[in-house]
């Protein structure tokens, strides 16, 4: 859970803002299948929301033709001091609740009981009449074995690193080789100055120098060294 600091008087605005802020976790919430999951969401500073309407919905939920309420997308709706079960998606019936006696302190965290793989996704906490412009927060829920999810994260990270190294290799190797080739061609030019291929070698040298300078920034230094007049020429 992202740090929320000490509670302050209710309704006190933070500097630079116009009201209390919704604060949630910086990382996804992970829960095992069949366990309960708590989606953290609270106001900073503390702000009494007992009399306000609180809406928890799935941000990425696609409407189910067999469930008209899925078009609304409410996972949990709190209004008039109590839950409104008639507006809840059927799949979450009897499985969600707000934390007891927490609303007066601005804690609107949602507990989902007996989570399944179908519950995985992004959840939006929305307080329509919250003072200030920031009225909602999104919390992501991952459902699975923690070890497997962690391993999957590591594998994904390792793959990204390898991909970056591969791209760098593709960009750097031609640049380094190109720099070596241009220098070799320059030396060869000095040896075959009187040959008929002199003009062709000059064109190739300039071409490779310009190309490697564009691909690899450091190749510009190679180009300057290559373009120095040959001693005794």
State the end-to-end CA separation: 71 Å
Q: What is the CA-based Rg, rounded?
A: 31 Å
Count of individual beta strands: 11
Mean pLDDT, nearest integer?
72
| Multimerization state | single chain
By CATH, the topology of the largest domain is Immunoglobulin-like
Q: What is the helix tally?
A: 3
Beta-strand share of residues? 15-25%
* CATH level-four homologous superfamily name of the largest domain: Immunoglobulins
**Structural class determined from secondary elements:** alpha+beta
Morphology: elongated
Class of the largest domain, according to the CATH hierarchy?
Answer: Mainly Beta
List the domain count as a whole number: 2
Low-confidence stretches are 1-16, 209-227
What string gives the helices and strands in order? EEEEEEEEEEEHHH
| Main beta sheet | 6 strands, mixed
Structure description:
With 233 residues, the chain is of the alpha+beta class. It has 2 domains: 21-144, Immunoglobulins (Immunoglobulin-like, Sandwich), CATH 2.60.40.10; 150-226, no CATH class. It contains 3 helices and 11 strands; from the N terminus they run βββββββββββααα. The strands form 3 sheets. It has a 6-stranded mixed sheet, with no helix packed on it. Strands 3-9-8 form a 3-stranded antiparallel sheet, with no helix packed on it. A two-stranded antiparallel ribbon has the order 1-4. α1 packs antiparallel against α2 (198-215), α1 (146-191) packs parallel to α3 and α2 packs antiparallel against α3. Mean pLDDT is 72; it is low at 1-16 and 209-227.
List the helices and strands and how they pair.
Elements: E1 21-23, E2 29-31, E3 37-39, E4 42-44, E5 54-58, E6 74-79, E7 82-83, E8 96-98, E9 110-112, E10 121-126, E11 136-143, H1 146-191, H2 198-215, H3 219-226
Parallel strand pairs: 2-11
Antiparallel strand pairs: 1-4, 3-9, 5-6, 5-10, 6-7, 8-9, 10-11
Helix pairs in contact: 1-2, 1-3, 2-3
């Amino acid at each position: 859970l992202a740090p929320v600091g000490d509670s302050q008087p209710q309704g006190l605005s933070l500097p630079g803002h116009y009201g209390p802020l919704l604060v949630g976790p910086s990382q996804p919430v992970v829960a095992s299948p069949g366990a309960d999951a708590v989606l953290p969401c609270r106001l900073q500073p503390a702000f009494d929301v007992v009399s306000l309407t609180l809406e928890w919905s799935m941000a990425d939920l696609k409407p189910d033709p067999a469930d008209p309420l899925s078009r609304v997308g409410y996972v949990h709706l709190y209004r008039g001091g109590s839950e409104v079960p008639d507006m809840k998606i059927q799949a979450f019936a009897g499985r969600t609740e707000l934390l007891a006696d927490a609303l007066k302190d601005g804690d609107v965290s949602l507990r989902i009981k007996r989570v399944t793989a179908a519950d995985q996704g992004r959840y939006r906490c929305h307080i329509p009449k919250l003072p200030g412009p920031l009225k909602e927060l999104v919390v992501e829920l991952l459902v699975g074995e923690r070890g497997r999810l962690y391993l999957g994260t590591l594998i994904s990270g390792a793959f990204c690193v390898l991909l970056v190294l591969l791209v760098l290799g593709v960009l750097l190797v031609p640049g380094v080789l190109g720099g070596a080739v241009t220098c070799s061609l320059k030396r060869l030019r000095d040896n075959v100055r009187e040959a008929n291929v002199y003009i062709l070698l000059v064109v190739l040298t300039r071409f490779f120098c310009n190309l490697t300078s564009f691909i690899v920034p450091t190749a510009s230094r190679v180009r300057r060294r290559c373009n120095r007049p040959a001693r005794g020429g």
